[in-house]
Amino acid sequence: MLKSVTMAVGLSLAVGLGASSAVADDHSKEQLYPLFTYRTGPYAPSGIPFLGGNRDYLRYVNEVEGGVDGVKIYIQECETAYTIERGIECYERYKNGYEGALTAAIFPHSSGLDIALTEKSRADKVSVVSPGGGQSVAIDGRVFPYLYPLVFDYWSEAQIIVDYLAKVHGGYDKLKGVKLATLYHDSGYGRETIEPLKILSEKYGFEDIQIPVPHPGDQQQAQWQQIKKAGADWVFLRGWGVMNPVAIKTAARVGFPVDHVIGDIWSGSEDDARPAGSVAKGYLSVSAFPPGIDFPILQKLKTAILDADKTDLKDKSKFGSVYYNYGVIEAIIFTEGLRTGHKKFGNRPLTAAEGQWAFEHLDITAERLKEIGATGLLAPLKVTPENHRSETVSAKVQQWDGKQWVALTDWLTADPALFKDILYGKAEAYAKEKGITPAAVTN
Amino acid sequence: MTTTELEQPITLPGTRGLTRQRLLIAAGLALGLVGVPLIGNDYWLNSIIIPTIAMGLAGVGLNLLMGYTGLVSLGSGAFMAIGAFATYNLLLRLPFIPLPIVLLLSGLIAAVAGVFFGLPSLRIRGFYLAASTLGAQFFFQWLFTNFNWFSNDTLTLTISAPRLELLGWDLNSAVGRYLLVTVTTVLLLWLAHNIVTSRIGRDWMAIRDMNTAAAVIGTKVASRQLLAYGVSSFYCGIAGALWAFGYLGTADGYTFNLDKSFQVLFIVLIGGAASLFGNFLGAAFIILTPILLDVATSTFGLSDYIDQAVLANAQRIIFGVLIIVLLIKEPDGLARLLKQLARKFTPQR
Q: Cα A99 to chain center, whole Å?
């Protein structure tokens, strides 16, 4: 028995590692999309619909549109279970392409992995693109030429919250004396809004109350008592996972009006509001990835993919959910990045260097969004070599009506000038600590 | 250091076996320090070999405590975190100290913490002790996520690899990091080997086998137990620094969570308790099996036939089953399995 176990292990080792080069098909006419997945692990409930949207859109592009400008996308999944170490293995496995297909960029699908790849990607000259999950300091493309924290950052989110409150209260001058409590997940992610809100509170005169919730946040009685005692007018809920429904329920229990609780972008999915039950009705959240199936591109996906039973989703009710649409948005950004590169380099698979150029010149205009059928699904996006985030950051405010999210506003755009110097200053400090010379900007 | 060790005359009985063993070690070292960097590519070094060696070293740390002294700890992750954060802060704040000294100091800092959290072992044993070492795990995770001084006030509370260099030689490439991790591990293995074959090691094993009897024959049980916690944490601390900067390139309070502690524990169980080399087998098993299963599914094109979600979950199930089968069939771990195999294939005299 002992021997047979060893034999089996040895055999599978030899087969698994040896075969990877033996039966390689030629995919050199295709563009590789290494799809970092988390179908298992604690974040699988958000990973599964996200991957569904991601794969469905790419399948649509491949099968209905014949690829991106004729170049088919070759998807290879790599399961990370949302851990950094598995993610690094996936990155190393696919950074130089696979079976002849080239890698243009890596989408790590995890903020932690994005951070871990900061210096590796610099050494390998491979772009790491994290729509909605990048590092805010990486906005400075001269210091971080290979990082793309696209679409959204928490500094802009703090601005958008304050802009929204000003709108509700009837002007920025009315914010004086308003008490805004931020209930945050006590982690790097949760703390990112402390600094911008402090600056904003000094600027507009509202009272800034910061209350941490330790991970995972399944007990919040004390924090909500504190909020009641402080007499907060609004709560900005920067939660994650189980912390969100618990916050909504506890708010209702202590008698805090749920329609004065505004969730973060990671507190605003169906799975954050629905488990809280009927008390969640009226709960607000910031949304950078609007849910819904009325966008023309979602309708196209419904006909060509969902109804044709080609979807990656097991549970079809997730179609059009926040995370599904987030997956679609990310796939759109990937394919639009490729299109940008094709215009300069020709309609063929892009190398990592060409991918870097392409994402640095990504410009998704309102017209282009209309062509795709994604108006309202994502805001126009413009990247430059100096600004790897997007020149403007926008989000909507949405409200839970008990069954689904309803958009309350159109895109609210944060003033890009306000925090520019601070963020670029932080990038400069990073460059100094690491001894990096910021790249000269060339076009 | 190791070569001089090899040339020393052999004084113990069983000389013939030992010479061969030493020759094997020398060959292994030559292969490891020259051969592997020459033939290994980025992928193998970065995502297979470096993590295996670093986790193996953490396994050595816990094995000194668990396998040799018979004590338990569920706080290995915490001591790894201390090592990583100490290395980061020493390199950042005292940049004139060379890297090897920094690693040594970080190990010592972890050792101090280890001794402190080993104090309950003087009063309690078994499951109760295991539960008390959990305290270290939660305390340090809390400490590193709540005081961002430790991460140099970064927004993300994450520490990133400082520039690794030794005598002006940049160690940031895959080969450089590999050599850093391997040389450190070899030196520490040599030290561990000497400790466990010395008086200290014999005392530890006496405590493990029966601590009352050990006390009767004059072993200072209390101080030896604390020493075991200190040495174990010293190893874990350095392993943590290597894991964070030799492998990941980054770390935060959650990098070394309870999962990591359990991983180290499994490495010891699977590799084989009271074995130094076995830890590396255990680490290879823990780290490589999931990757292998993932590679196998894509190689055989299984994703064309079977749903991705099913595959992803099946991999975890198979991994779990493998662990169970292995522990039932060979409770003494992979080290013993390998030894038996070696015996089978060498001519008996």
A: 28
